[in-house]
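Example 3.2
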Amino acid sequence: MAINKKIREVVYQKYNGHCAYCGREISYKDMQVDHFKPLRTLEPDNKNANDISNLMPACRMCNHYKRANSLEVFRKYIYEIPSKLRNDYIYKIGVAYGNVIENEKPIEFLFEKVEKE
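Structure, written as tokens:
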């Protein structure tokens, strides 16, 4: 189901033009509307699927990587990126020369930081 323009504008403003996940600034035209609770996990007749509370502004990169996964699966995927890269020869050279700095930490999304404020 397509999200109408009025709803898209409200979604865009939820985090002042930033991706709800990584926090990067996104233009309105580049924003993708993500279903926080993936549609595949909801009943087909669920009226709240497209409720504003279930819609998040996302950059293309985050929306693509999250796909139809839950937030915790997405968080796990992001957290595991360094360990997946460690076997790559180019990555190892980058670490050895200080061009790549590993910074493993718990993953906290922008919307979670905003909720704490």
